[in-house]
Write a structure and sequence with these properties.
alpha/beta, Aminopeptidase, 8-stranded mixed beta sheet, 15 helices, 20 strands, 35% helix, elongated, binds ligand BES, binds manganese (II) ion, binds zinc ion
Length: 499
């Protein structure tokens, strides 16, 4: 789908899309169209239950007096509460409706002076952003699809006064779209395609944008003492990798300590010897989403030339049973020096992160460190798919994260850390065990485990197990890989950490 920005003009073919506010209040463009078709739109409104609420829509087909084939009325809610997210959602909604209707071309009118607080150029760019985000589709393996089964919309024209300004604003947002699509692609790929070496290759692909990429092999990790990460990977034929990405965008790059992001990159999680049940195990191809988001985030920062120094690290392993797999009861020594009793080989993400987090703070002394991981089924029980779980040792960082999440529609709910939970991870045989032994507070005890591998640096952990893969379409995120966390962290940086 192509997006075009143009100065306002009367649409001649395809679908004309205009907004309607709550209580059937037409926007200026809708009033003009209604006049040209002798009130057909107001009549259509009066006989339908469409009231102009957010998420409402009404298609009027073949209106007499107009050149266009269809008018699509999009509900915008109350003008005063229409924000950037509202325009993104409208854009996504429009794409979904027209793709479903078999339409190939549409023109959306963005008005000035309609009581909306954001300026028309920004509104246009945000609408285009939402349209693009919703237009994503992972269909490379569908080789027999007929043309009519594919999305139909080819061109979305956005008519707005100040089209050039809108186009410029959208260019930055489109960099984020490209990054989101990279993440969605690599999270969607099956585990026979994306495994530690090929996931590291995806990170290497960012070199052309100016990201410095290093890939550590088993030998190098062994030298560093990463016994926890290596233990997880040892049952697999596919060797583990640690990928380290650096974006040095701060104006005075040498002075600024970086912000750091660490992702769980379990390219497939069978559970290992503590093997998972067969039903739904295919979902564990997306157990690398944390590192998928970190790779995408680095692409977004480099793409939009963010004025920040950022480090992205992915701990990449495949968790398989096998003749050399680690066994329940094994004791491994992590890079921190702490020994870990591995009582359940399916609690592997925390083992990978233990070494990746330690390495990150040790080498980079970051301003803060945020990890993302599809870490526990327990966070899905607690929060479902509406909020991701957030844990933090730093109130300021926690607040910034929550606000960034609200702004982009990737919501976080802060969960508690507490010494009483921490004690549940004490082991009789080693310094710490990798499961508490009960099912209670499963996401919290996992976070407490991670915390033992974090020193003084402000730290946050995002448990994205419930939000990284969606079973249903939402306005700007089609079902499947969501890239949850990418837009949130990009926003966090844009709002607080760029110089
Ligand atoms: N990758 C899983 C967590 C997960 C489960 C993500 C379902 C997405 C959907 C993780 O490695 C895991 O297996 N966690 C265990 C921990 C348990 C053994 C303490 C879990 O949540 O059951
Ligand atoms: Mn697991
Ligand atoms: Zn896992």
């Amino acid at each position: 789908m192509k997006i075009v920005f143009a100065e306002p003009s009367a649409p001649k073919s395809g679908t004309a899309v205009v907004g309607v506010f709550e209580d059937r209040k037409l926007t200026p463009s809708a009033v003009e169209l209604d006049r040209q078709c002798n009130g057909t739109l107001t009549r259509a409104l009066s006989v339908s239950k469409f009231k102009g609420r957010k998420d409402d829509s009404l298609a009027v087909l073949a209106p007499a007096g107009l050149d266009v084939a269809r008018v699509l009325l999009i509900g915008l809610g109350k003008p005063a509460s229409l924000d950037a997210l509202g325009f993104q959602n409208a854009g996504g909604k429009i794409v979904a409706l027209l793709d479903g209707a078999g339409e190939t071309a549409a023109q959306v009118a963005i008005d000035a002076g309609d009581g909306v607080k954001i300026d028309p150029a920004t509104a246009a760019a945000e609408l285009a952003y939402g349209a693009r985000l919703r237009g994503y589709r992972f269909d490379k393996y569908r080789t027999k699809e007929k043309p009519e089964q594919k999305p139909s919309l080819k061109t979305l024209t956005i008519a707005v006064a100040g089209a050039n300004e809108a186009k410029k604003k959208f260019a930055t947002l489109d960099k984020i779209v490209e990054a989101v699509f990279l993440t969605r692609d690599i999270v969607s790929e099956p585990a026979n395609v994306i495994y530690p070496e090929t996931l590291a290759d995806q990170a290497r692909g960012l070199e052309e944008l100016g990201v410095e990429v290093e890939v550590l092999t088993r030998k190098e990790m062994k030298k560093l003492g990463m016994g926890a990460l290596l233990g997880v990977g040892q049952g697999s034929e596919r060797p583990p990798r640690l990928v380290v990405m650096q974006w040095k965008g701060a104006p005075d790059a040498k002075d600024q300590r970086p912000v750091a992001f660490v992702g769980k990159g379990v390219t497939f999680d069978t559970g290992g010897i503590s093997i998972k049940p067969a039903g739904g195990m295919e979902d564990m191809k997306w157990d690398m989403a944390g590192s998928g988001v970190v790779i995408g985030l680095m692409k977004a920062l480099a793409g939009r030339k963010a004025k920040v120094n950022a480090v992205g690290i992915g701990g990449l392993v495949e968790n398989m049973p096998g003749g050399n797999a680690q066994r329940p009861g094994d004791i491994v020594t992590s890079m921190s020096g702490q020994t870990i009793e591995v009582l359940n080989t399916d609690a592997e993400g925390r083992l990978v992160l233990a070494d990746a987090l330690w390495y990150c703070q040790d080498r980079f002394k970051p301003r803060f460190m945020i990890d993302l991981a599809t870490l526990t089924g327990a966070i899905i029980i607690a929060l479902g798919s509406e909020y991701a779980g957030m844990y933090s040792t730093d109130d300021k960082l926690a607040k910034q994260l929550i606000a960034a999440g609200e702004a982009v529609g990737e919501k976080l709910w802060r969960m508690p850390l507490n010494d009483a939970y921490d004690r549940l991870m004490d082991s009789d045989a080693a310094d710490i065990k990798n499961i508490s032994g009960g099912r209670d507070a499963g996401s919290i005890t996992a976070a407490q485990f991670l915390k033992r591998f974090v020193n003084d640096v402000p730290w946050a952990h995002l448990d994205i197990a419930g939000t990284t893969w969606s079973k249903k379409d939402t306005a700007t995120v089609p079902k499947g890989a969501t890239a949850f966390g990418l837009r949130l962290l990009d926003r966090l940086i844009a709002d607080h950490y760029e110089s």
